[in-house]
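By convention, the token line describes the chain's fold. To illustrate:
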Amino acid sequence: MNATFDSLGIYTLAEAAHLVRVPTRSINQWLYGYDYTRKFADETVKKHVAPIWTPQYDSNTWGEKVIGFRDLLELRVVREFIQHGVSVAVIRKCFENAKSTFNDSYPLTALRFATDGKTIFADAVRSETVEEMMDLHKKQYVFRQIIKPSLYEGIEYDEKNAKRWFPEGKKRDIVIDPDRQFGKPIVAEFGVPTAALFASYKAEGADKAAVAMVARIFEIPTKSVSAAIRFEEHLLQAA
């Protein structure tokens, strides 16, 4: 995709893993594919699993694997599918069907998928021979468990696409916005990166006095510094 990172956000795989709480290795496999071997009798066969979708940035152009904001949000949904035991093959089929139906390159976080995606998911499952998931009731249950309201909480949309993400849900202190600071987490009101505030807080002693000092240095309220610290600490706890 030809676009600049000031409108797409830009994240290394390590940064993305930190934000969506998915191992870097998993992100690499989902977005870039992987090879594996299987042995049949005396023959070893090498197979390739294709990526689920093509990331917003071309790694050949950037010299390393980096992804965009829409990639980041789609990964959250894929994480939920995987955690509920859905195979990569079913996820890929679901993604392809949704992409075609909604005419959206990043359909899993499109507004319509939350409401119209159940049939698409059912069709994707039906294409597989997974006995325990073929029952209609089970399929609907699995989808409801994955595409739950909390998964989309904090995401703001334009007419159909995700535009920014408040990762703490109803709390709107912190935002991830591809149009601001390259999509890095920032204090929503003032635009200061949470990572910078947290680093300064630790450098100043990581105590109440440090919060006040950081607030003076960055000329923002102490409550905003505290929100940034809380956010970064939650990321570390989830790592």
Notes: Confidence is low (pLDDT under 50) at residues 1-5. Strands lie at 11-12, 34-40, 43-49, 66-67, 155-157, 162-165, 174-175, 186-187.
